[in-house]
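My main concern about presentation is that the manuscript never shows what a single data entry looks like. The format is easy to grasp once an entry is in front of the reader. For illustration, here is how one protein appears when written out as sequence plus structure tokens:
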Amino acid sequence: MAKKHSEKSGAEKTCLTFDEQQKLVQCERSLRGHTESFHQAGLALKVINTEKLYLGFGTFDDYCRQKWGMSPKHAYRLIKSYEVLDVLQKEFGSTSTTPLPTSESHVRPLTTLEIDKVVGKWKQVVKEANGKPITAEVVEAVLGKTVASKGSTSTKNNGKTASITVKELTEITDWITKAKAKLGGPKSVVEKLLERIEKVLGKHVK
């Protein structure tokens, strides 16, 4: 899985080589379209992190915040999602009849697993779907993350229970992250709300 490389070391270089600059340009091009391709975004972030192409921003966490208005937690989730999908693609290949995840919401619950258990769980997901379109709810159910257990947070409203799934919390977090990037400026109510939701998400995704 993804390893964090956010701490500075005394032996760190102070500038990127020409080849590293070109690689960074390619990675950032992928990141600009990350809403359409979480797989490419995860790969780009992984390369930037592991090869320390974030030079000039101090740490990978700072790079994500300042360059993209993206929380480091979301960046690491994208990296893990890429790693999971990469394992599935290598296992089943393009000629397999086994369907692969088509969105990050399908992959994200699998990122909580040990990497060697991903293929087996995905086979269970495909079997559970029984030929029907695979949804995030099916994936969460197979992993035991149902609305009634770890996969939701509930509130009371006039005696009725309203549940929010992990998928819904994730979508809200992503929307707020994009909104914060457009607003810019110092820490605001929006950023505080984002941090609060991520704390809730963390309790259910661990």
Q: What stands out?
A: The longest helix spans residues 72-92. The two ends are 14 Å apart (CA to CA). DSSP finds nine helices and two strands in the chain. Residues 6-10, 146-163 have pLDDT under 50 and may be disordered.
